[in-house]
Amino acid sequence: MATVTGRVLRCNGLPHEHLFGRSDPYVVVKAIDSEGKEVGESRTSAKKGSDVEWAGDEAVFNFADIHFDGALEFRVWDKDLGPDDVLGQVVVPVKLICFEETELTLSLGINRKLNAAGKKTPNGTITVSMKIDAHHHWL
């Protein structure tokens, strides 16, 4: 078991989901156990634009007692008046998280929608800083 702590720093190159205006992205971070069940959730505040940054404590996540076979899911949403839209997501296995705080820039995948030229485009990137602390249980 371990504790994963970190912070969402920024998202860049996010797709524009609104016909008029900019996206209002926010990030939901979920801790997933080895069986695929959600065991924790944290979220950032919503920002405006396709290149956004979060400062201070507004985008911190902390998941205690997470198993090394689990994962963290970073899903970027666009805040809407109706149902929110997913802009992109990435899953990071816990066993790949470093013991020292490390900044990672991760791809949010490829957009399923075609652009005007008939091509699929990237969903942008998310940059996070995180580390893992292992729990030692002595008998």
What amount of the residues lies in strands?
A: over 45%
Superfamily at the CATH H level?
C2 domain
> Any idea what the shape is?
elongated
Give the strand tally: 11
User: What is the terminal-to-terminal distance?
Assistant: 15 Å
Within the CATH hierarchy, at the fold level, what is the topology?
Immunoglobulin-like
The CATH class is identified as Mainly Beta
H/I helix tally: 0
Explain what the structure shows.
The chain is mainly β and 139 residues long. It has one domain (2-134): C2 domain (Immunoglobulin-like, Sandwich), CATH 2.60.40.150. 0% of the residues lie in helices and 54% in strands. The chain contains no helices and eleven strands. The protein has strands at 2-12, 25-32, 38-43, 52-53, 60-66, 71-78, 85-93, 102-107, 110-114, 120-122, 125-134.
Can you describe this structure in just a few lines?
The chain is mostly beta strands and 139 residues long.
What tags apply to this protein structure?
139 residues, mainly beta, Immunoglobulin-like, 5-stranded antiparallel sheet, 4-stranded antiparallel sheet, elongated, C2_dom, C2 domain-containing protein, C2_domain_sf
